[in-house]
Amino acid sequence: MATILLIEDEESMATGLRDAFEHHGYRVMVAAEGEAGLNMADEELPDIILLDVMLPGIDGFDVCRLLRKRGVTVPILMLTARGEEVDKVVGMAIGADDYLTKPFSTRELLARVKVHLRRVTDKVPSLGKYEFGDVKVDFTKFKAYKNSEPVDLTSTEFSLLQLLITRRSEIVTREQILNTVWGYDTYPDSRTVDTHILNLRQKLEDNPRKPEYILTVHGLGYKFAG
């Protein structure tokens, strides 16, 4: 039974989502504010976190940032009533795996949760350990190091890096990345791929503006050159 941590201050929304997920066999914990959500994430070790952006006290962006800083790698799906492009970019840049704008259908949210959990729990990485430059990655333990220092990668970033490495020297299109990493035929905003690529470069490349390993093939996609 997968455990979901729902951090949502709107009581009716939280109750409805909890009932829906419990009906489908999930264990659901609910926190009504950011600080409580952070504590639950530390104590209960959920399999996925559904995180509202507009929270009292610590907002969802800061909660996401703190979770990643603490080494939490489980998928984080952000929920918000705001749909501006800048909010989506910010959410992905600080480590969110997915983004859903209210109002949304419970069926769509259930589908996305299922995809993220399947990617994390059902797929055994085809790579064990891999090294390039001063970076070492252990895909079996979901650990990464640069210059022998730990690097915090999200579960999505591990999956994206694994895909690029397994198909190194090949061009991988954005559509192929979305299909393989996110499990969707289509995605509300394909720019999320670009944002995750940027995050990987910032964490692993010596010069993110002139990447040596994670390369852009303009008009086509990306490829790994390690």
What would you say about this model in short?
By secondary structure, the protein is an alpha/beta fold. The chain is built from 8 helices and 12 strands.
Q: Can you give a write-up of this model?
A:
The protein has helices at residues 11-23, 34-44, 60-69, 85-93, 106-121, 155-166, 174-182, 191-204; strands at residues 3-7, 27-31, 48-52, 76-80, 98-101, 129-132, 135-138, 143-146, 149-151, 172-173, 214-217, 221-224. The strands form three sheets. A five-stranded parallel beta sheet has the order 2-1-3-4-5, sandwiched between helices. Strands 6-7-8-9 form a four-stranded antiparallel beta sheet, with no helix packed on it. The chain has a three-stranded antiparallel beta sheet with strand order 10-12-11. Helix 2 (34-44) runs parallel beside helix 3 and helix 6 packs across helix 7. With 226 residues, it is an alpha/beta fold. The chain folds into two domains: 3-121, Rossmann fold; 129-224, Arc Repressor Mutant, subunit A (Orthogonal Bundle). The mean pLDDT is 87.
Topology summary:
Elements: E1 3-7, H1 11-23, E2 27-31, H2 34-44, E3 48-52, H3 60-69, E4 76-80, H4 85-93, E5 98-101, H5 106-121, E6 129-132, E7 135-138, E8 143-146, E9 149-151, H6 155-166, E10 172-173, H7 174-182, H8 191-204, E11 214-217, E12 221-224
Parallel strand pairs: 1-2, 1-3, 3-4, 4-5
Antiparallel strand pairs: 6-7, 7-8, 8-9, 10-12, 11-12
Helix pairs in contact: 2-3, 4-8, 6-7, 6-8
The CATH superfamily label of the largest domain reads Response regulator
Helix count, DSSP H or I runs of 4 or more residues? 8
The strand order across the widest sheet is 2-1-3-4-5
Spell out the helices and strands N to C.
EHEHEHEHEHEEEEHEHHEE
CATH topology of the largest domain: Rossmann fold
Share of helix, binned: 40-55%
- What kind of sheet is the major sheet? 5 strands, parallel
| Low-confidence runs | none
Proportion of residues in β-strands: 15-25%
Question: What is the SS-derived class?
Answer: alpha/beta
CATH class of the largest domain: Alpha Beta
The CATH architecture of the largest domain is 3-Layer(aba) Sandwich
Apparent shape: globular
Number of domains: 2
